[in-house]
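Quick one, T. Sequence first:
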Amino acid sequence: MLRSSFDAAAQLHRRDILRVGGAGLLGLTFPKLLEASESQTIASAAAKAKSVIFLFQWGGPSHVDTFDLKPNAPDGYRSHYDSIATSVRGMRVVEHLPETAKVMHKIAQIRTVHHTMNNHNSAGYTALTGVEPAIDDQRLRESLDLFPAYGSVVDKVAPSDNGMPTFVSFPYTISDGSITPGQRASFLGKIHDPLFISNDPNLPDFNLPQLSLPQGISLDRLSERRELQKLINSQAKALDESAAAQGLNAYYERALGMLNSSQVREAFDLSQEPVEIREAYGRTTYGQSCLLARRLVESGVKFVTAYFARSIGGRSKTDGGWDTHGFDDTRMYEILPEWHLPQTDHTLPVLLNDLETRGLLDETLVLWVGEFGRTPKINKNISRDHWPKCYTALLAGGGTRGGAVYGTSDRHGAVPDVDPVTVGDLAATVYYALGISHETEIRDNLNRPLPIAKGRPVTEIFG
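Structure tokens:
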């Protein structure tokens, strides 16, 4: 059910009625792959987004302590935080997000996202691709049997033609014991990997060594494939040295183009931003990552993934992701107000307002979501555990209807009550915003055709 502050009854839609019809550069190793055939990309007439900014909240935020509060739930379920009013009549958010509360009229919520993966690596893969693995296994590793990242799919079926990379990710490769799959192109081939930037954008000397020319090497010398191969191999330790890897030659060609592109270098040059803008986003790695994401979509990058943290989190009040189960005398309700919620409140509203001021919000979809939510029942450590059965995703811009709420969880926030949304539905929604049909097909490593999303877009949140 879609609810608006102005006329809830008028906004009631059923997804069964509104069905959508119609038919990186720097990454890990890839062996020789079967060539994936091109498939037709069917545009959505309603699509407005030219770019996506995916703010991935690694670790799993608590939906019932942020945006889907249950103030009438009994003790042991009800949040320890109070709620505050927002810019949408009748809507409340957690008290520790006062600036975010002011921009909720720009944000659509989907409160019934769900899947079955309870471990970080398998849930992270699910959230980054929109596809669940066969089993829920913390030991899940990158494999050509697994699906590619959102941005890699976009690079395959609707690549940019403006001289900018289609897909950029930064500033971390996320992991939990091992690298979490779903961050790269998988069976689509290395050529569709993101341009991955591991440098901290908050450092005073932030630069792009991947795009810098070593002393003594001219562009003329780089035009020779052998010299270019030496350069790339020295600057990307994880580069596949096998000349048989799919897309290797095209990989080098694209790398050379970027080395010679002032447009690309300028897009990454945060020093061009006024001091007051940099301060507004916050002088933190995540804050400057959000600013960099804005610069990139402004320069024509189609898909940007910015990771909230490298690790899932834990005891720290100054670092890490949202996995704050509660440890000893350091508990979730002490950690979140000191680190995670201020980081969110100091970046998300600033990003949305900045995009709007620059006339970019209507054409930029911002997606804010983690790999799962948190248990409605508070555990013995006065905290909440992993909970993929129901959680909240925020979407703003890109043609979405600000202030909309789609789906209703039950009275505890435990399971969807009305209008459940699968991760496949969420993936289809992202592609829909970009004008890409969820029925568009790609081919896996066995040359089998697969739809890019196993679900249907939530069209009701679009204006």
